[in-house]
UniProtKB/TrEMBL annotation:
Species this chain originates from: Aegilops tauschii subsp. strangulata (Goatgrass)
Protein name (database record): Plant heme peroxidase family profile domain-containing protein
Active site per database record: 99
Hydrolase found in the keyword field: no
Species lineage: Eukaryota, Viridiplantae, Streptophyta, Embryophyta, Tracheophyta
Residue ranges constituting the Plant heme peroxidase family profile domain according to the UniProt record: 58-225
Family: Belongs to the peroxidase family.
């Protein structure tokens, strides 16, 4: 099991070749409509609060002000580069963020790579995730760690949250403040992933999203692609 910001990076890097191959095979499609991105961002922000009740008390703007003062600028620039390289990176990053938050809270456990193959990203329920989303976060993490003042001091969970926000803003959606201070998860298993299946009817979908404190409007936004 790989945990912590540095471990997330090194562990995911071992998947780098397969990620790059998948990205090369992926044919870019037009980006999702801005309205969908805006709705998705609003819904995911709700999930951040609802699924991280213990962490919510310590989250605050400016958490890294004295640790990594240029954090948001670094992530912003990195996401801009990712979006220039792929038209679907914004939507892919947002979907990745939701899948992370909806399982164990927003702890970046979706980024963990376990040597035994039992981890979230290899769950059947996560196979709809696009490699561009993972790559956007990997690149942002690498950019943050390239700054000596920030190196290994920013959680992967916070970088994922910031990358999701930047994906919305740079797509023309609304800007919103991201409170920081999340801890990276240490556990990631296939069995922990319980997400809506393609055979879910409306009642099952409503029940699932209602359990997260989300409305049917939120459900529609989060189910879009």
């Amino acid at each position: 099991e790989l945990a912590g910001a540095a471990s997330h990076t090194s562990g995911r890097a071992r998947k780098g070749n397969s990620l790059r191959e998948a990205i090369e095979r992926e044919t870019d499609r037009p980006m999702a409509k801005l309205g969908w991105l805006a709705s998705l961002a609003a819904a995911v922000v709700v999930v951040v609060t609802l699924r991280s009740p213990l962490a919510a008390a310590q989250l605050r703007p400016g958490y890294y002000a004295s640790i990594c003062p240029n954090l948001e600028t670094i992530v912003r620039n990195s996401v801009r580069q990712s979006m220039a390289q792929s038209q679907i990176s914004a939507g892919a990053t947002l979907r990745l963020f939701f899948h992370d938050c909806a399982v164990r809270g927003c702890d970046a456990s979706i980024m963990i790579v376990n040597s035994n193959g039992d981890d979230e990203w290899r769950s059947p329920d996560d196979q709809s995730l696009k490699p561009q989303g993972f790559q956007t976060v990997l690149d942002a993490k690498a950019a943050v760690d390239k700054d000596p003042q920030c190196r290994y001091k920013v959680s992967c969970a916070d970088i994922l949250a910031l990358a999701a926000r930047e994906s919305v803003v740079q797509s023309g959606g609304p800007n919103y403040q991201v409170e920081l201070g999340r801890y990276d998860g240490k556990v990631s298993t296939k069995s922990s992933v319980v997400l809506p299946h393609v055979d879910f009817n409306l009642d099952k979908l409503n029940a699932f999203f209602s359990g997260l404190g989300l409305s049917q409007t939120d459900m529609i936004a989060l189910s879009g692609d």
